[in-house]
Automatic annotation (TrEMBL), chains A, B:
Domain HTH lacI-type: 1-53
UniProt xrefs under InterPro entries: HTH_LacI, LacI/GalR-like_sensor, Lambda_DNA-bd_dom_sf, Peripla_BP_I
Gene Ontology molecular functions: DNA binding
Keywords: DNA-binding, Transcription, Transcription regulation
SUPFAM superfamilies, per database record: lambda repressor-like DNA-binding domains, Periplasmic binding protein-like I
Name of this chain's protein: LacI family DNA-binding transcriptional regulator
Domain of life (superkingdom): Bacteria
UniProt source species: Roseomonas marmotae
DNA sequence: CTGAAAGCGCTTACAG
DNA sequence: CTGAAAGCGCTTACAG
């Protein structure tokens, strides 16, 4: 910066102002400074700027995975919104509360202006660390208590409940659930509970539950079919906690010549791209992952820049009924 | 930090050393310092550390998209390797050379210790900026010239060529190509050229080429089928530049009762998870996206930490022959 | 092994 | 509108 100041014949302050408060410096002076800076290939050092100003213009996000279109969409929404507002994204991938804590420690040392977490299942130390840091934090993909600071998501249970009601209304009576259940994770639990609530209200069996080992594999659907049929030969529908399970299940039905939905109805969760294309097209719950990312970024920045922001933001969900159920 | 130093009755230096050069401070002193730090909830300010030391322990990556399992895998490989070595990932998503440049300007201000780019199609200003910054940069998913600094990838053309040879060996004679072709992008061009080379060598028509508007949509396959059949009614095989196109094509064939591979053979590129599951299972080119991310991180860190690193690193590729061709 | 000094490249708050 | 001073929280290089 001092090179630029010297070459342009102005003080450091004027260079700083030329970049950061265009209004405050004379148009001529500013143009000259910018020209010199461009010529010299000067890129302002935002590390020094951060240290001096206490504002990093960086938002950190910790997601469990990006090989799953839901979170990939959220990261995309975050990235787009942050870039628009001149912020950068510091990304950490952590799929357990323990890894989340260590990502948090690493990331906090970078003094981000805010943090986006996934879900509300955290280690107590993580929560303590966050409170002490005192920065805006949004928990995404969940809306229920406890909330550390702000939450952006939708009612996971209601969405699953709605799909349960739909299947029941279509006349299915022996309905299984293919899910995934890491310990104490409310994001997964709420879906299952919402779905079971629909079954219970209708007086149906709600214990046809299968939990896959992995969240992301197509195999989840296949294994669920095997396991659930063993328990209930009259099984006539399966609700999958993700579209990937549902797709795996459909592929398996094709191989076994089980007709969908005639012999077995299938419903998914997520409305991934494949849902609209697979044969038969998949009924699913549309979740707004991109909007979650956008809204999370907006809430963080509003707060970081001293504006008001809601504690909770519901992006909603929607049933998308297609051919599979 | 000064709070910690005071509370522990030592100098700033000792606190710094306790965190950064454990060997240099007495075990007792170090334990006391760490205990005090933990009690106070002290998280070292790495922004100040970066400014003072000139090393940020941050690596930036610019990818065109993450809603495509290839790059998602690369980001995962990058993230895992960086986290293991105590580095953070600054991620930018930019899908055109223009956006790449503006991401670059933003990211360079953060003084990363290295940068990972995708492909070798850049604006001249981007290259100039990078050269001036003088930090380690790796271009990923490409190996061909020109290389700015280092490259990690595999021979895109050879992989496509191999698949072309395979289809020809299987007896297909009217083979189409379903691709995507943003202006001047060598990553896409190399695949197409490699494939066409196989056709030309075999004396087959190499102009059955269809370019989709979008890289990521399932619709690409469907549109290709329509367009290519119009041009060549005897069309007996289609090579898709991504598995997503191939899957979309298979779904469309199911709808139209076109048997795969009997009526039409299909091959993909990428070996996404779906390839092994779809009916029929998809023949494809396995690309090692995760390894690309790992290797890119390794090369950057080796150089950033003063070690030698190769200019070019080939992760290889592999033909995975399944049922669809 | 431990510590006092200088400096990293900016911004803040103030004076001119 | 422009500028000289102080300081952000660390690390470097050196002396003790």
């Amino acid at each position: 910066m001092s090179d630029v100041a010297r070459a342009a014949g102005v003080s450091l302050m004027s260079v700083s102002n030329a970049f950061n408060r265009p209004a405050v410096v004379l148009p001529d002076t500013r143009a000259r400074i910018l020209a010199v800076a461009a010529e010299l290939g000067y890129v302002p050092n935002r590390i020094a700027g951060t240290l001096a100003s206490g504002r990093s213009q960086v938002v950190a996000a910790i997601v469990p995975s990006i090989r799953n279109s839901s979170f990939a969409r959220t990261v995309q929404g975050l990235s787009d919104t942050l870039a628009d507002r001149g912020y950068e994204l510091l990304l950490a991938i952590a799929d357990t509360p323990e890894r989340e804590l260590s990502s948090l420690q690493a990331v906090l040392g970078r003094r981000p202006d805010g943090i986006v977490l996934t879900g509300n299942t955290h280690l107590p130390q993580s929560v303590a660390l966050l409170r002490q840091a005192g920065l805006p934090v949004v928990e995404s993909w969940i809306l229920s208590e406890p909330v550390i600071d702000m939450a952006v998501g939708f009612n996971l249970g209601a969405a699953a409940y709605a799909m349960g009601r739909h299947l029941i209304a279509r006349g299915y009576r022996h309905i299984g659930y293919a899910g995934y259940a890491p310990a104490d994770n409310s994001r997964f639990l709420e879906r299952q509970l919402g779905f079971q609530r629909a079954l219970i209200e209708a007086g149906l069996r709600d214990d046809l539950v299968f939990h896959a080992e992995e969240h992301n594999g197509f195999a989840g659907g296949r294994l669920a079919l095997e396991a659930l049929r063993m328990r209930e030969p009259r099984l006539d529908a399966i609700f999958c906690s993700t579209d990937v399970f549902a797709a795996g299940l459909i592929f398996d039905c094709q191989r076994q010549s089980i007709r969908v939905p005639e012999d077995l109805a299938i419903a998914g969760y997520g409305d991934f791209e494949i849902a609209a294309e697979i044969v038969p097209r998949l009924s699913t719950v549309r979740t707004r992952g991109y909007e979650i990312g956008q809204a999370a970024a907006r809430l963080i920045l509003d707060r970081a820049e001293g504006r008001e922001a809601p504690i909770r933001y519901d992006v909603g969900h929607e049933l998308v009924l297609r051919e599979s159920s």
